[in-house]
């Protein structure tokens, strides 16, 4: 799948590790990429679920505060930039993807679009029409304000993308 | 600020902040060049961005209404503040209603513009800047020196010293990593306990109420969603009609600013957001957390609606505050926003912003640091003619100055069309054509006289011409005088005819380059005519003497119209004059006249390149290599994309060409002569010197296309620079 290859390449350039996997191996992969304590939200990818993993879903703010890993899903990926669209949900996707040091993002390979115009077009009919919020996240948070590039300014220091291919 | 104070201020910044600013802006700049190269259709994206902005600003009142409606429909509040005080009053009231003790704030120039921190602190609210650059400045109690990288004037070492003395950590902080992690922890706590989060907005979408925040650190996300009250402050100009309109800006803003393809986070908030509020002490699952949120959008006019009515300042409202115009600017690279900035905004476009939101006096302080070199023009993602805005405001400042006691004297002596009040220094340089004419008519006496110590002293005292700068010498015989004598030598059956534009410098100061141009063209079977023509208006334009420039533009066009009627191409030696014909004349002349002249005008080597490109045998008549040359293309020539012709032609003729990569020579016409700017001009120039004086390059013949560059190179190097056409001209008389 060329789009996923492009996506993976772009993420590689952002120091984000990518794992492509079949839904059947999801639980064992999660066990490998997550450092506990881990918190998460329900995933927008139908074929997988965090239910039988060590990831605590529906966490409290205090649990988010102490967790090392946050696992959330992306509704869309942009291959050329390695960006993921993280929705802002009542389930707390925003907080879980932002406050933990390590962010594991789960995306369906079919939800990766080639470029920004396509992504903005899709978002216009989903997110914008429904007046929802989201963040286009590209790599871990970063800053150069202290005299050199440092990853993990306020948000996650590391990001790991799991691409579900069925 | 007096001239001397200004000189001292600039000198101090060159010494203290220059190195840091330079290093950082360079990284942004190089990043931008690389990042836009990856774009398939960079020009197309810029055009779309420009179109969207033009449309949005023209419909602004209607978009403000639409946005207000949608945000209110979504459950948020909108307040349209007329000025800073009004905005601050509203914000303080919200804080009071929320019983807020602390507020966390992400970086926003608009909030700097209204000085909201002071207002909040006066209302008893503690404000924490969460952007790490802004945090450094808050701790240091300093103002931003760049619209994108507010603390780029500080080195890592300085930040470490600052943090170590302010926070006295157990282990002294040293590396960028340590400093970042310290700030992350410290500010993370502030975010958790804050009652209100404040952000700016890079763009606002009218149709659905989305605001886009462009950040990399994640602090804007945290500030917006952790506390239960979010206040966003934004200038009214940031509204776009539709969500899709965001796309070109998303792809341009980071590239233009810091040279990244995208920043880490592009937050599309449509508040009040549905994400639960976060009380980090709570053990209740998120699904049971309170989802009640307050959102206030404070839309700030503060002069913007008036700018919209101002045909010249209006373009400023298209600005997306990416900072590209600052990063590419040689002067900015050396002194940063503490010299090249006003109360809030810095860099090329700051003149427009400051004049619009804080008034002309704020722009006056730094407006002259824009030399009109035009290097920023192609870098601006919304294609704003930044130098033009600087010239217009300069003109307005000139007009606002109170007349001096010398005005009657100067007005009698100078033929310009300016009212009283223009400084003597500006008037002198703006009327340089007249000075050159007189100087040349009385040379060599004038040259001898100008160099006499009492003359230099008077020039320094009255005109503030720096006595360390060598003055140009006027030629005894002007180019036109030379041409009259030899007119009969023109080729009898020429292929074509051109008119050579005798600019002030070529005519009175460096006729050699004009002579070389004539010989070259004639050798290529082109008949040259060289009529007496007025000045282009470049000199007064750069002093902000717009009426004089306009008048000269009309006269020059009138003088050239007959030549255009005769189907003659117009060949220009001085790139800054060609830039007038192809650029600023659009503002001065009727459209048809402008089109006609700009289509027929060529830079001399561009023209020669065109002549030989179709007929390679023609190169035989030119003086070819081998030879090693070091070439510095003029800034306006580079903006017009013309430097390549000279390079290609020289290579074609067998020369080994080293082209300078530095942004500028530092001279730009009168700038380097002025006492207040002499040192900055030289500081910028030293980089060009370094490039051409590197080991292994010192044997190269130095070439430069513009007179200012030639002047500057002349004072920097032992070798005498020449115009490229002098190198390739055939050895005929
Ligand atoms: S004027 Fe153009 S280049 Fe300068 S900050 Fe504004 S958008 Fe960027």
Please, could you describe this protein's structure?
The complex is a heterodimer of chains A (166) and B (733). Chain A has 166 residues and is α/β, with parallel strands linked by helices. Chain A is built from five helices and twelve strands. Chain A has helices at 2-13, 26-33, 61-66, 93-99, 116-128, and strands at residues 17-21, 38-40, 56-57, 69-73, 76-78, 83-87, 102-108, 112-113, 134-137, 142-143, 150-151, 158-164. A six-stranded parallel beta sheet of chain A has the order 1-12-7-4-2-3, with helices on both faces. A four-stranded mixed beta sheet of chain A has the order 8-5-6-9. By secondary structure, chain B is an alpha/beta fold. Helix content of chain B is 50%, strand content 11%. Chain B is built from 36 helices and 17 strands. In chain B, the strands form four sheets. Chain B has a six-stranded parallel beta sheet, sandwiched between helices. Chain B is elongated and about 95 Å long. At the A-B interface, helix 3, helix 4, helix 5, strand 9 and strand 10 of A face helix 8, helix 9, helix 10, helix 11 and helix 12 of B. The site of iron/sulfur cluster has 16 residues of chain B, from helix 14.
């Amino acid at each position: 799948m060329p789009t996923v290859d492009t996506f993976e390449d772009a993420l590689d350039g952002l120091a984000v590790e990518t794992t492509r996997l079949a839904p059947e191996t999801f639980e064992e992969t999660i066990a490998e990429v997550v450092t506990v304590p881990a918190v998460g939200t329900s995933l927008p990818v139908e074929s997988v679920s965090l239910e039988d993993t060590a990831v605590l879903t529906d966490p409290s703010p205090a649990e988010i505060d102490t967790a090392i890993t946050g696992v959330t899903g992306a509704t869309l990926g942009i291959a050329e930039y390695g960006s993921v669209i993280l929705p802002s949900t009542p389930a707390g996707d925003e907080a879980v993807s932002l406050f933990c040091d390590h962010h594991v993002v789960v995306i369906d390979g079919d939800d990766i679009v080639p470029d920004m115009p396509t992504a903005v077009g899709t978002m216009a009919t989903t997110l914008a029409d429904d007046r929802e919020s989201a963040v286009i996240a590209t790599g871990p948070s970063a800053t150069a304000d202290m005299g050199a590039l440092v990853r993990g300014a306020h948000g996650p220091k590391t990001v790991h993308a799991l691409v579900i291919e069925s | 600020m007096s001239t001397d104070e200004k000189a001292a201020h600039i000198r101090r910044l060159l010494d203290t902040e220059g190195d840091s600013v330079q290093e950082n802006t360079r990284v942004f700049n190089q990043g931008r060049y690389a990042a836009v190269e990856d774009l398939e259709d960079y020009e197309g994206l810029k055009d779309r961005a420009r179109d969207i902005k033009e449309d949005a600003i023209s419909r602004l009142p209607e978009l403000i209404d639409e946005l207000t409606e949608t945000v209110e429909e979504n459950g948020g509040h909108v307040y349209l503040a007329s000025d800073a005080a009004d905005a601050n009053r509203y914000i303080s009231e919200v804080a009071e209603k929320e019983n807020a003790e602390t507020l966390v704030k992400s970086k926003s120039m608009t909030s700097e513009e209204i000085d909201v921190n002071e207002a909040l602190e006066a209302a008893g609210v503690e404000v924490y800047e969460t952007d790490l650059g802004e945090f450094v400045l808050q701790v240091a109690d300093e103002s931003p020196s760049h619209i994108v990288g507010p603390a780029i004037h500080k080195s890592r070492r300085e930040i470490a010293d600052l943090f170590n003395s302010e926070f006295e950590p157990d282990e002294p902080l040293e590396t960028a990593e340590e400093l970042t992690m310290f700030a992350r922890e410290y500010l993370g706590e502030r975010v958790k306990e804050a009652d209100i989060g404040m952000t700016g907005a890079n763009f606002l979408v009218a149709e659905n109420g989305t605001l886009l925040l462009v950040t990399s650190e994640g602090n804007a996300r945290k500030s917006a969603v952790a506390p239960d009250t979010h206040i966003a402050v934004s200038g009214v100009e940031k509204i776009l009609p539709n969500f899709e309109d965001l796309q070109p800006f998303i792809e341009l803003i980071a590239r233009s600013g810091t040279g990244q393809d995208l920043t880490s986070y592009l937050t599309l908030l449509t508040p009040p957001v549905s994400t639960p509020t976060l009380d980090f002490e709570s053990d209740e699952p998120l699904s049971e957390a309170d989802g009640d949120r307050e959102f206030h959008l404070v839309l700030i006019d503060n002069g913007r609606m008036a700018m919209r009515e101002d045909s010249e300042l209006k373009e400023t409202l298209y600005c997306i505050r990416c900072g590209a115009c600052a990063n590419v600017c040689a002067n900015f690279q050396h002194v940063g926003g503490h010299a090249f900035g006003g109360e809030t905004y810095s860099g090329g476009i700051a003149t427009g912003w400051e004049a619009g939101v804080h008034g002309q006096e704020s722009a006056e302080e730094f407006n002259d640091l824009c030399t009109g070199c035009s290097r920023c023009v192609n870098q601006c993602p919304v294609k704003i003619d930044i130098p033009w805005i600087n010239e217009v405001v300069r003109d307005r400042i000139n007009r606002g100055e109170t007349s001096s006691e010398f005005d009657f004297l100067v007005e009698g002596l100078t033929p310009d069309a300016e009212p009283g009040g223009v400084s003597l220094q500006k008037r002198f340089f703006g009327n340089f054509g007249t000075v050159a004419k007189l100087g040349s008519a009385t040379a060599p006496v004038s040259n001898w006289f100008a160099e006499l110590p009492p003359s230099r002293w008077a020039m320094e005292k009255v005109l503030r011409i720096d006595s360390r700068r060598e003055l140009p010498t006027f030629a005894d015989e002007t180019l036109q005088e030379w041409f009259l004598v030899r007119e009969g030598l023109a080729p009898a059956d020429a292929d074509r005819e051109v008119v050579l534009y005798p600019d002030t410098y070529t005519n009175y100061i460096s006729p050699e380059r004009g002579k070389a141009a004539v010989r070259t063209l004639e050798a290529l079977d082109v008949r040259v005519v060289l009529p007496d023509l007025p000045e282009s208006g470049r000199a007064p334009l750069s002093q902000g003497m717009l009426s004089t420039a306009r008048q000269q533009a009309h006269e020059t066009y009138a003088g050239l119209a007959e030549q255009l009627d005769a189907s003659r191409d117009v060949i220009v030696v001085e790139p800054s004059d060609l830039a007038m014909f192809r650029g600023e004349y659009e503002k001065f002349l009727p459209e048809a006249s402008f089109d006609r002249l700009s289509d027929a005008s060529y830079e001399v080597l561009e023209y020669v390149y065109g002549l030989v490109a179709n007929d390679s045998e023609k190169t035989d008549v030119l003086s070819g290599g081998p030879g090693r040359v070091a070439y510095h293309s003029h800034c306006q020539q580079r903006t017009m994309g013309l430097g390549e012709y000279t390079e290609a032609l020289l290579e074609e003729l067998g020369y080994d060409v080293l082209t300078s990569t530095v942004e500028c020579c530092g001279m730009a016409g009168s700038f380097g002569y002025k006492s207040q700017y002499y040192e900055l001009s030289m500081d910028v120039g030293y980089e060009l010197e370094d490039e051409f004086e590197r080991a292994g390059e010192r044997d190269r013949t130095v070439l430069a296309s513009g007179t200012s560059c030639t002047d500057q190179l002349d004072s920097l190097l032992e070798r005498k620079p020449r115009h490229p056409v002098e190198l390739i001209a055939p050895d005929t008389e």
